[in-house]
Design goal:
4 copies of one chain form a homotetramer. Chain A is of the alpha+beta class. Chain A is about 50% helix and about 10% strand. Chain A has 21 helices and 11 strands. In chain A, a hairpin with a 3-residue loop joins β1 and β2. The first copy, chain A, is globular and about 70 Å long. The first copy, chain A, starts with 8 loop residues before the first strand and ends in an 8-residue tail after the last strand.
Chain lengths: ~425, ~425, ~425, ~425
């Protein structure tokens, strides 16, 4: 008898075919909470610089789930026991690991919320889904929270070499067209193994890991911290701040109902805990809500808000200057004078320039280390295991400062 | 002395680097009319089926401009004279060839407008830009309208083997991940030549052309006419029609101001001609406006509108059945009964099912033929030149009928 | 405890990593009979036209084995039972399916041997290896000979959609750079299923299969039957025939000892059966032997042999003309006259021109059909199942005639 | 009138189409000296490890010529003047830059010759061709020898960022399948510029250059210095040394005539200078001659030579151990004892083991530096210009020692 193939197959431009491993996974993907990720771009405003970078969190989450399947196959083939329930749980955990991301992913994380990172929200949503799915997500949540005793599962979800990073470096490289960020995912996956329930890299994989770290660094500087995208982010954040200020003084600023809550004030953890509707609303907002605000605000009677919205919509970005030192008072004052000369109201100055800094620290200072399993059976930190001179160098934190300001403001005021 | 490189370079995941050939091209791309294309997806709702297909008209237009540069280089190298002004004009014409596309490209072309196709609007916008750019687009417009005497320029913009098709087949294949649609663009370009000011294919390029035609057909059936995307389109169109009906009976249906005009009634050519603001408004609407309506309408008190919006937003699509013959009365009646049994009001039935047809005719029946330049110097239509048995077969029109309906409606009413 | 990974991994530019599935497979690959395939180019003389096409039978055999693993995984995932011994046997059978190829694969098949095709020799070698490996190849041989009751295994080894074809079309496209020959191997593999122990294609795979057939046809005309390669083949064959003629008249013609047997006379099946050393010698000859002869013969005192060797070595190929009809007596006579005028001895004329024909018949007229499994459960031949107009067209046999001759002969005599 | 396209187009799997820029280039490629490169593998014995690495010097030379065309186009577009004769000369110089390579490229450079590197031979061959082509190679030779006043041409032929390296890193990555070695050739080329007639990298190209240096280092350790290939090289060299020893004692060792000269003794520069036939003979030997010797020697009555030939032919390689320190006397003695115990004659010991070292010094210690053109107009060495921590690290020399020996010798003696 012919057995119907119930396993759904998706086309992914990065990996070709992706097979959904179970009905539960299928149902989770169909759920509106997960479907929302279709409307959250993976790279926020990066498409201002790399027009191809329109890919969504939805694709990334499914890609990471696919890689989880691949790595578990490889680990099994090396003689490690992976139970069927563990496999499904690990795939679900990585599938949902980003479900707490709000509009434009990282861009607005600290503008809409206060003291609530997306990982925290992810946990809340996973618990909510667990209720809806009769506790079937228990093990996935354990893995995600790292309370499951086989530590390597959490390490595959969240560590220096997790399936999250492997997918996003590769995928972001693909969609931006920054070829140097492309990594040999297959190769890295085949180099992973388990040693005393912890994830390790086989010694012969050292070069592959280093190549990966280098690709990641390239992506940081060429993509994730690209100054043009930062300029766009500054404008967007300032627009939201201006809207919030106007509302605080009683002026009308139209916005979708669910987003409104987050414009009235930054939402903190207490609000999420105490008011059930806060999370409900959060689960309804996405890139579309922000963009439709921008489009509406272009016609707002407040000139500052309208200017910010228009600059963003038509990609008339602020000029931005990166430097190794913070910009001097003198430089900043020169910018301020330029703005004042062009008729900016002194109390509105802050909307027309910004001083900030970016750094690759976030990716360097991580608790979890990469461990190398030597042929001798010994496990060593990669920095010690390597005689490669660049590994240490890769760990250095680089911080850059920037000053950005509206140079075209005179056109409008 | 070091000469500053003023030519902007863009990263395109499909072709790698794309160089902007002139300042005029740069300024056109920076113009808000062109920036709008960032917010119009190339493939409408295809990302419902192929999640990677989020690429925009913006990318496609720049890609087509890039290919135009490539083909003109190749034609020059074969000894054809291309003047610098012709080169720029041809690149501008193809850059702007799709600027008249509205939200979701083809999907809503006949819902928002009546008797005005996107080519007509493109012409109007090109004329508008020509005014803004002091007549610098004159030659580009001539080429676009095919009034320029060197016919091959228009053929490179709009024919069976134009740079538009070459880019979109290739690009759509790339972003959907449907590898079979990938074509050897380089190879085809190198096979093109000019004969008596008309575009021809060198005889040795026959197989390449055939492979291209086949890839195109594959893309039609696997992507452009995919039944799941059609189901999504049906729901979106019905939502807009319901909104229009509600408004016509005086009910309030919120929508962005510029879109509102097109919801009040279908706009025809006269409106565009007579009211200057119609085109202005059209130039302000994009995918975001439609999607923000959908998100708002989810909460509309009209249950039909709310149901349609929700189905679309959460991708709960209508069931769709393709067949060679139109669905019989019996089948249609069965669907209607099912809907009535689930409490649908008879006068609202039309919002819950649809009968239609799709066909590859649009791409087959074209005026412009592909001409082969034989080694003997003779020019022949490809169908005659070819001893390849499939060329004729490829020209056959295939029409398919579909019936689609809401099978989950009982969940909601 | 850490379990050592004994499974060898190979780098394949086409598929990335290829894992050797078992120690037996590893040992077979290490065997000198299989190592010989490193020195047999997959595409004979195609690198005369496509310089990248230097890949060996060795790579192809391993690639086909890899695909066999992939397809068996996919078939299992669809609920078909594949036993571990069957899996290994199928991978071995496809690994060894081409082990009977001699120097330059197909090119010399009918020059060195008479009435013994490479499949027959493959069988003899498999039996020989089976002895050396204590009968461990029994099941593989059954599958290869199609005596195993689960017919689909043989169909995966040798049919219209076998892993052999899938690998070589893909691989040859990769190394020649003929992008149009690239096929979505993953996609096709995922469309295969088993129905009553026979290989079938799921109905939704129709387009993929058609794309595959088209790619195959493209490869036939652009690569496998490329006229320049044919011209090279003609010269090589004529050189070997001249050497044989010289030897038959008692002249000395140096050649490696094992190759000598096959130069003395064409070897037939009886020789292989009756003299054990014939097969031994065959297993020692490869491309190197032929090429070293050519290099030696450049200095042979017989001007005809020396001319042929030099033409081949320095790629001074014969001119070749393809046509739909056989060349007329008149054309042939013109060539002969040209040769005679340039001082060719009438009795040597045959070495300086050739009349022949090529056809894609070999790939069209196959016993095994592609069967489609309809959603209704019914199985149909693809020609009937398809409403695609090109399937039938693809089956048409095209035959071309050629005349090739030395046009530069006067330079040398 | 239709102008026939005389420019030949080649298919290259790495770059797609490659156009031959002139008739002179075409004629050079057709010349037997250049055709010989078809029979010299780019990577010597690397296909023992990476079976795909069968590509030839022929392909590499044409690829480098293609990149030279690309970079000159880009430099012109930035406003640098490149004359047509300079363009052709630069393309010819890079096309011929490796024509002095002998069999198996670097592998036998110091076994067949003494004090004559392949660059020296390249020069001699270029002069020889220049005679044959009536002095048309004058400018190319000037560029190659760096006597032409516009220094950047030589830098494009031979420096840290020359078209040679760019092609081979990329090509070797492609054919080995070591994806980490793939570099964004287009990107690097677009970052190059000319400053006071010297090659510089635009400041924004820093990351690209670093990625390139890293890819190069990866290729060194994963490919060029792979221990398995080194083991193969050791065996091949020992076979040739044994043959030479046997001949020196009057024993017969068959080999092709032109190779024989180089087996009789190592050829030094004087021989090349004084005997015209030495270079003639060199221009006739290639991989085939070596391989045919190996195949013949398998049956030689000297057991040592026969063992070495067989080991090589069937890829029964010596065991090899890499270490940071030179192997100790103790280790070496252990190996010797093992060999003696297995019946090796003490005076033949040297053929069964080898102590050596490898290092990436060759690629680090280069005279030519990479210069960065800062936005300020200043030119700086990359090490100073970069705030990237890894640049310095990349320059560190790593040396590894190895001991390799026949562990299976007892099987044969």
């Amino acid at each position: 008898m012919y057995i119907q193939n119930k396993r759904k197959i998706l086309n992914d431009p990065v990996y070709g075919f992706v097979t959904l491993p179970s009905e539960l996974v299928y149902d989770l993907i169909e759920h509106p909470y997960f479907q929302r990720l279709r409307r959250v771009k993976q790279l926020g405003l990066t498409d201002f610089v790399y027009p191809g970078a329109l890919h969504s969190r939805f694709q990334h989450a499914i890609g990471a789930m696919h890689l989880m399947g691949q790595v578990l196959n490889s680990l099994e083939a090396k003689g490690n026991l992976i139970m069927e329930v563990e496999r499904e749980a690990a795939q679900i955990a990585i599938l949902l690991h980003d479900i707490g991301h709000g509009p434009f992913s990282h861009v607005l994380e600290y503008t809409l919320l206060e003291g609530v990172n997306h990982e925290k929200i992810t946990e809340m949503i996973m618990e909510k889904l667990n209720l809806a799915f009769d506790g079937k997500l228990n093990l996935a949540i354990e893995m995600f929270k790292n309370t499951y005793h086989r530590k390597f599962f959490n390490q595959l979800i969240s560590s220096q070499l997790d399936m999250d990073r492997l997918d996003y470096i590769n995928r972001d490289s693909f969609f931006t067209g920054v070829a140097e960020g492309s990594i040999g995912v297959d190769r890295i996956i085949k180099m992973l193994d388990i040693h005393e329930e912890n994830l390790v890299v086989e010694e012969k994989g050292l070069l592959s890991v280093e190549t990966f770290l280098n690709a990641r660094r390239t992506m940081y500087w060429q993509v994730y911290l690209h100054k043009t995208a930062i300029s766009g982010e500054v404008i967007l954040i300032k627009a939201l701040e201006r809207a919030r200020e106007l509302k605080s003084t009683g002026q009308q600023v139209d916005s979708p109902k669910d987003l409104e809550k987050f414009l009235d004030r930054k939402i903190g953890l207490t609000a999420f805990m105490e008011e059930k509707e806060t999370l409900e609303s959060f689960l309804k907002i996405d890139d579309i809500d922000i963009l439709s605000c921008i489009k509406t605000w272009v016609n707002h009677k407040d000139k500052v808000l309208s200017f910010l919205a228009q600059s963003f919509l038509n990609r008339k970005l602020y000029k931005i200057k990166l430097s190794d030192e913070s910009p001097s008072e003198k430089e900043i004052n020169k910018v301020k004078e330029h703005l004042l000369e062009n008729g900016i109201n002194p109390k509105d100055l802050k909307y027309f320039f910004h001083v900030g800094s970016i750094s690759n620290a976030g990716y360097v200072l991580e608790n979890s280390r990469i461990n190398i399993l030597k042929k001798s059976g010994e496990v060593q930190d990669i920095v010690e295991a390597s005689d490669l001179p660049t590994i240490k160098a890769l760990g250095k934190i680089v911080k850059k400062h920037y000053l950005c300001w509206s140079k075209d403001v005179y056109l409008h005021f």
